[in-house]
Amino acid sequence: RAAIAKAYPGRDVAIDAVANPGKLLGAMLPLARAEAAGWFDGYDWVIRLNPDVIIRDDGPIAALLARRDLDGVFVDCNRHVYFRRADLPFAARIFL
Question: How far is residue 28's CA from residue 33's CA, in Å, rounded to a whole number?
């Protein structure tokens, strides 16, 4: 917690620490808790990425998020290898 506070001095930072329930549930739990706590209120989109993912050019993503006919953007990182994974990057439009 101290490292996060140090990384964001003077910022309003909230930390919600819970035990990790495992890979799949551990990937979904933060989104469920954040939504239940209202952390997404006021936002149009939520983007979920793993910590080791870097967006080097946000132009293509921004263009997709600007489209009114899309409510979700999902990435197939393995090109035609389909299996259940919780670590695929995605963006979802928030409906209030």
Answer: 9
